[in-house]
Write a structure and sequence with these properties.
heterodimer; A: 112 residues; mainly beta; five-stranded antiparallel beta sheet; 56% strand; B: 113 residues; seven-stranded mixed beta sheet; four-stranded antiparallel beta sheet
Amino acid sequence: GEDVEQSLFLSVREGDSSVINCTYTDSSSTYLYWYKQEPGAGLQLLTYIFSNMDMKQDQRLTVLLNKKDKHLSLRIADTQTGDSAIYFCAESGKAAGNKLTFGGGTRVLVKP
Amino acid sequence: EPEVTQTPSHQVTQMGQEVILRCVPISNHLYFYWYRQILGQKVEFLVSFYNNEISEKSEIFDDQFSVERPDGSNFTLKIRSTKLEDSAMYFCASASGGQETQYFGPGTRLLVL
């Protein structure tokens, strides 16, 4: 079945860039997503990329997709303390109404 | 901005009791989902629902689980006889189309004692 993996933890200094990495196994993935979860809160959609794209930029966020290696990354420029959260990578397949398969989440800690 | 809402935010129940978790999806959305996250584990898909029927369910979604859209706004998940291992955060999500982005609610934290 599909599998999505992420590193567990990332520590970064305020103002630096953060890069969160994700690998997935399903070659039929159509969309890949990044969600953010703050303590006690739900899953907030940050951004997504369609599988025929290599890169997507949205303000401080840059998503890079290497479809050959099945590798997805999220770069956060000028990381702020408010960016401290758990970041989840997720993929969806081709079927209509298709489920999301999530990674385990990367906890990002931004130090002042 | 429209959002998915869920009630209650927290629920504590005794093993063997029935619970109903409620969700109000975004109003023009047609696809509805339930996911759960056991503490320290991945977010797992439970079920998807479209056109008043289940379109896909995971192996977790056994006979003790059911979903319903009783009216035009609510989407519910019922667990008929709760087990200790049902303790988790349950997330509802909705989407305007089958390939469209899923928007998540804040979750219901269920604790089974």
